[in-house]
Fold each of these.
Amino acid sequence: MTILGIETSCDETSAAVIEGEKRRVFLKSNVIATSLSIHAQTGGVIPENAAREQIKHILPVVSQALSDAKTDVSQLDAVAVTYGPGLIGSLLVGVETAKTISYVFNKPIIPVNHMIGHIYANFVSENSKLDARRYALDAQIEFPAIALVVSGGHTDLLLMKGHGDFELLGGTRDDAAGEAFDKIGRLLGLPYPAGPEIEKRAKKANPKRFRFPRPLIGSADFDFSFSGLKTAVLREVQNLEARHLTLEAETINDLALATQESIIDVLTKKTLKAAEKFGAKSILLSGGVAANQSLRDRFSVLSSLPAGRQGQFSVKLFAPAKSLCTDNAAMIACAGFYNSTLLTWKDITANPELYY
Ligand code: KG4
Ligand code: ZN
């Protein structure tokens, strides 16, 4: 089954072609145009600007994805598109494009929830059929799985019992993990999006200088809260300023590491707790924050501890290629393959408030 995926929920315009066969999905092409540099100038995404950029990029991105995959619209079996959640102006560009392709070329549409799409990045095998590890990916991911989606807008833990079978266990009560990275980065004068910059600076930091709280780390539920962390960093910055200390590069690095450590501790602890409680065989990381190498490394260490150190269970860890953690259409096409509700162009509308 050849599927064209389209993703335009926020500030990335992406189109991808995948080939799905039985229990494997191969990536044929994945084109991403980002308007990040425009949002960096305003310190965050202004929805009108994002929508305007989507309109500019969508057609060139779709044709590039088709030509990179050496295919054309007539050969597609379906078009999978993100229909929510996201910014309405941005979502509409992708949904209307998919509807037009569907109408003109008589192709079915598969509506995809962006958050579920992130999880399915774990099921995408990259191009080379020679890559044995990735080739067998689907076969390796066993259910039940615990999926952690950590993006700019969401921090959610889900129990995945099978394809399309999700139960939300918990989510953030206020800021998402990526949002916390971005807002704290702004406080430290770092460019948007701050996650990658905080990761870079944390590598040069002194780990002993600052320690911030780990919000809700011990709570009985699977919820998260990161707004208090932002306040704690703000207070530390104000303390430094009250002592007439300027935010030197070294101090920013140390604050960056303490921020990252707090977020990593909370995310790993709660995810492993959920994995243990539900007897998960796999943990699936996803979302932009899952591109963070320190987070991946910590998960990798904790999930490979011998049974007994972290409870009586063993669990396999999966994380998508870093390029598939942030928004992309490959994950949308892949989610479409595994959950193909084939609709006609008339039956789909964008839903910015869509949840699970
Ligand atoms: O999934 P994504 O591309 O967009 C949403 O659906 O929100 O996630 C973007 C978020 C941003 O908040 C960004 O700062 C964060 O992911 N991010 C990172 C890293 N790369 C992106 N956070 C920490 N470390 C990274 N390396
Ligand atoms: Zn996303």
Amino acid sequence: MTLNEFDIIQTFFNKPITKSNANIILGIGDDAAIVAVPEHHELVITTDTLVANVHFPSHTSAYDIAYKALAVNLSDLAAMGATPAWVTLALTLPEANEQWLTDFSNGFFTLANHFHTALIGGDITRGPLSITIQAHGIIPKGLALRRDNAQVGDLIFVTHTLGDAGLALQHQTLPQNILDKFYRPEPQIVIGEKLRGIANAAIDISDGLAADLGHILEKSHVGAEIIVDKIPLSHSLLEFVSIEQGIQLALTAGDDYELCFTVPENKLSQLNNNHVTCIGKITKNSGLDLHYQNGKKYDLKIHGYQHF
Ligand code: ADP
Ligand code: MG
């Protein structure tokens, strides 16, 4: 069967919307979609592109490509504290392969449905494989978590564990739970939502903790002290690398899509979450001061991934 553009949209992307976190007035099929932002809320918008051989190795399955493309966008919404509502999908494909599109669509809608996020439009073009998603979230007015509001004295936290995704990118033969951290990152939507009104600043960790925390420090005009042996590393990771290598992966490898956020001391009691670890604090001195619990200085060697 040869698939034209219309067939592709109808067969693989124009799915009945099971449940959406916010109102859709007009979905796929017209020149553009129409949505309604709930009263007393703001719209949070982000976009991210995934390019074959840059963001994922060429052997990646269509399911995982779709899952990751959506996950990294939802992760940006999580880092703002927003609730995802709608997404658009611009897909550039070298060819219209039915099996590939079926797997891609399954990966996409598995994650989209999990977070009640509706696909409301997009575009299809022919060319080297590339996926661009725009995600729209909603948040009560004024409550978005930004990078520019970390305050001196705030404690710095990260969610879950870091470094697994970095290892998964280096080796293909690892247990599935480590590989999944790279190929199917879990956007931290639920934690992001709970941080509204508690965290002063937040970011998702896509380029490594050092680089991403660096963005908070720069935008907030503050510094930070991080105790590197408090950075949470998974048991699975430590079966394959030393603590030293784990710390290095966490600080520099990226692709974890966990959250890093800062909380003032008077809000600590509201945080109350088993999935977060305190790794340091915001300081007046600019720059990132990395050391061990015993006071020994940590030397950071590589910086986060940069495209140019
Ligand atoms: P136009 O030419 O007016 O831009 P298209 O023919 O590109 O419209 O798309 C027709 C409809 O299908 C539009 O509503 C568009 O948003 C939707 N659409 C196109 N590609 C996708 C896709 N990959 N996923 C979801 N919706 C899509
Ligand atoms: Mg049109």
Amino acid sequence: MAMPFELPHQADGVTLDWQTGTMIGAAVQQSRKPLKDLAGIFRDEARRKQADPDTTVYQVQWWEPAATGSEGGLFWGVTTIFPGRVGEEYFMTHGHFHANRTRAEYYGTVQGEGMLVLMNANRQTWSERMVPGSLHYIDGRNAHRTVNTGDTPLIFWACWPTDAGYDYTTIREKGFGARVLSVNGKPALVPSHAENL
Ligand code: PAN
Ligand code: ZN
């Protein structure tokens, strides 16, 4: 029996599994971020060093259908942050500003629970709750970092411009204005100046 429709064949195409947050296709690239590549990012650097340096904190799959840096294109990706903590701080991404501060981004949560931490140029920092189905518009001026506050992987789609670029240096040097810590067993956004109170 003929199928009512067939998906068009695309040699270079990418398929999304919306349930699991997986990208499939020869053009899909991937990278992994182990604890050893996140020096200086967590508050408790001593604890980070004590843990197995090969522990995967997060991984990213993405597709670049247009050249990096070219104007007008879009990239699509998916990030999986595994559950875990360094001391009281939940596993999270490095975080970045876009090198081009006029370039925005969408995140959409597939699975898990977490927080999207946003910071403006004045270091004012706030968060949005990530739950399955939540859609997050990230203004191009704001730094963004995602945090897995649950016991299962936090998985989210992302779509961003080909010429957004990454400014990781500002975050590496100054961090965000607040961190997501477990306080009395619950995730809380704690201003950095209040961390040691
Ligand atoms: C995302 C992020 C991804 C990993 O695709 O790059 O979640 O986070 P870090 O880049 O901070 O390590 C995105 O925001 N792209 O622009
Ligand atoms: Zn981004």
